Amino acid sequence: MWFSAVLLVAILKAGQLLAEAPIMSAEQALESVASGDIVLIDIRSEQEWKESGLAAGAWPISMHRPDFATQLQTLLAQYAPEKIALICATGGRSSYIAEVLTRNGITGVVDVSEGMFGNQRGTGWIEKGLPLVDLKDAADAYDAARDTWAATN
Questions:
Q1: What is the rounded CA–CA span in Å between residue 114 and residue 91?
Q2: Global pTM?
Q3: Residue 21 vs residues 50, 96, 99, 126, 143: alpha-carbon distances, Å
Q4: CB-based burial of residue 41 (10 Å sphere; 0-12 exposed, 13-18 middle, 19+ buried)?
Q5: Cα angle for residues 49, 96, 143 (degrees, 5° grid)
Q6: Is residue 75 within 8 Å of 120, Cβ to Cβ?
Q7: pLDDT tens for residues 52-84?
Q8: Where are the beta strands (DSSP E) in the chain?
Q9: What backbone torsions phi and psi does residue 63 show, to the nearest 5 degrees?
Q10: What span, in angstroms and rounded, lies between the C-alpha atoms of 94 and 97?
């Protein structure tokens, strides 16, 4: 009897550890942003955005800022987790944030795991020649969305 209980707990724990955020390719992210199915959040640093630009349609919300958690909570108040996708340089940070959210009961946030520069899952947004915007345009789009939320809440 006790062995069955221990085995059940081990299986449940393994399932939690193996839980992985949904993954989307860069092309799928572009299509989903264009159709309004997701909002794309670029969690890289401001310096990275300035150096390479942002994926077209992405909003700049850096995980390196002290108010990142607050901004993420605001997004989650506006959109279901399944409507939010994260992108970074090569997928490490977006995967990490998606996993942290999953471990804390917020499931469904999508990981654009190949990122802007690529990894073993794909060549990345930039190498694929997908459209880019500069930081000012991305920030203006994010500010406009926040103004809309403020007006409707």
A1: 5
A2: 0.86
A3: 28, 10, 6, 23, 27
A4: buried
A5: 40
A6: no
A7: 999 999 999 999 999 999 999 999 999 999 999
A8: 39-42, 54-55, 58-60, 84-87, 110-111, 132-133
A9: -70, -10
A10: 5
End-to-end Cα spacing for the chain = 53
Would you tell me how many other CB atoms lie within 10 Å of the CB of residue 72? Answer: 20
Q: Give the tens place of pLDDT for each residue, 97-142.
A: 999 999 999 999 999 999 999 999 999 999 999 999 999 999 999 9
Give the pLDDT band (50/70/90) at residue 8.
very low
Query: Tokens in use for 104?
Result: 């804390």
Over residues 14-63, the pLDDT tens digits come to 444 446 789 999 999 999 999 999 999 999 999 999 999 999 999 999 99
Strands 54-55 and 132-133, by their bridges, are antiparallel
Tokens encoding 82: 């399944």
> Which one, of 139, 119, 105, 104, lies nearest residue 23 by Cα?
119
Which two structure tokens, joined as six digits, stand for 80? 């279901």
